[in-house]
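Reviewer 2 asked us to include a model.

Predict the structure of this chain.
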Amino acid sequence: MPVLTISINHAGYVDKEQAISGMYFSIEKGELVGVIGPNGAGKSTMIKTILGLVDKMDGEVKFAKGTKYAYIPEHPTYYPELTLWEHIELVKAVNEMEDQNYEERAHDLLTLFRLEEAKHEFPSAHSKGMQQKLMIILAVLTKPQLYIVDEPFIGLDPKAIKDFLLLLENERKKGVAILMSTHVLDTAEKICDRFLLINNGNMIAKGTLTQLQQASIVDGSLMDCFYELMDQSS
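Predicted model (structure tokens):
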């Protein structure tokens, strides 16, 4: 049974009721599905629809029974009056987690992303990249069965990107599913099992790289397929 099944006929906001339409797909355990498309294509709107954050939606967003998901936003969201460690404690309290190894896992993640020495500092005192690392850490600590990730690489340094990708790979080995929106096509090509290509609020192609190559009649990279399919949809 899929972890997440999406059947969005159309969805949008008060001023634009049909910002996106025709979004039909599912995600299996351990699968990483990449959402790609130009700025303003509707990627973030689709993610907000899944999260229940749009004004109007005709369709269905169905999570498998008991599925816990974690959202990693493009723009870090935090409480300016709380330190990094206080955010970690808050997540434990809000999720009523009784994990005896919670603090050990938190320290391991802080060390991985080189934030251990800054754990008692405020996020606002650091760069967006460091704030984004905090978002990743908080998401991982909740032990979700599904990650919904919106442009995670923006602001991250190369070492942090590598560490994040290794972390995602380890999560996938546990059966965790990932839906990830990204503009970094060369990285997406290496790590994603399938792709959803969105343009002008519509899904214009979906499938594996081989399937996109067949659809675009281009025997090339994900970027080559992306540009060809975009031209076909214009």
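The chain has two domains: 4-68+145-233, 79-143. Residues 4-68+145-233 form a domain with the Rossmann fold fold (CATH 3.40.50.300). We have added this to the supplementary material.
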